[in-house]
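Task card 7
Instruction: Convert sequence to structure tokens.
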Amino acid sequence: MNAELSVGDPARRRAGFAVISSLAVVTTYGAVTVLTKEIHALELHQPWQDDPYDVPVSFDFAILPLLVITGALRAQLCRRYEPLPARRLVDLVRAAWVAVWLSGATALAEWTAVALGLHRAEWTAATAWQVAALGVLSVAIIACGVLLQRARRELARCARAGAQPDWLADAIVLCQWEGRRLGPLRAPAESAVRWLDRQVIARVRARPIAAAAALAVALALPFVAAKVILEGYPAPLVAFVFALTAAVLFAFVVIAGSYLRVVAPRKPRPSVLLCAAVAACLGGPVVFAFHDSLLAAANVPQTAGALSVLLFGGGAAAGLVCLAAQATLRRGRNGSPAPSA
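Output:
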């Protein structure tokens, strides 16, 4: 199988339609979700206004725009009348797949709250309109998932994706293309792109986990700032919200970055400590998602300190379980009998 798709290949046309449709649906879903969350008169009548059903909604604020923007930018390199590297199209399909699955998980949480009849006393016509919109968008999300699955199978049959170009390589190519359009500023723009490649991209390739942590912090800061400015959170609660948001984003960036191949991997599998760190960053927020029930059962008020105990305690437990599970698997592999000749 070829590492490139030729001009006019039906597989690239169908995959492109699936990617563009998915990004459009995800953008619409994300916009509706954020607007209804931020408009207080609408949020008050949402069945899913409380955790754990609201956790995916908050997560969508940072992740969906990132996936849509990066996907739309990289899609510009898929020129209709030029051969297309299979790696580029496969990565775009994967990015759309992640965005659709994230939207689907959020929609499922919202439908669960509707099915349980949460906050039924506050249901009004505004609730009915929001549920109707959720229904239409849910059907569109499912349809996009079907289109992407078909595209993935067809690409797997007709093309072999090579190691390159990965997302970082295409980012440099896109910057170079855009720099050529700047006329008299072309020379300094090309110099800036070369500097970016040497000083930033090279460091990201050398230390992808540190780069993932930096990106998680950068994405968490605007969300935390909004809580301070719009809702007046006190300092202890600000620190807790930052830790919670950065932990979830770090886990997502590492997992999604590995799946999307943002950086072409140099090792066949992640390290033990990285797996434990990701498990901790996921376990803590999962425990926190049920803080209402857990703190009520323990008869503990919902203070920043109590919430932090849930977050960091759940994270520590998840990390230790992950380390123990990996140690058990290693002992099983090392102690397994050698295959007979």
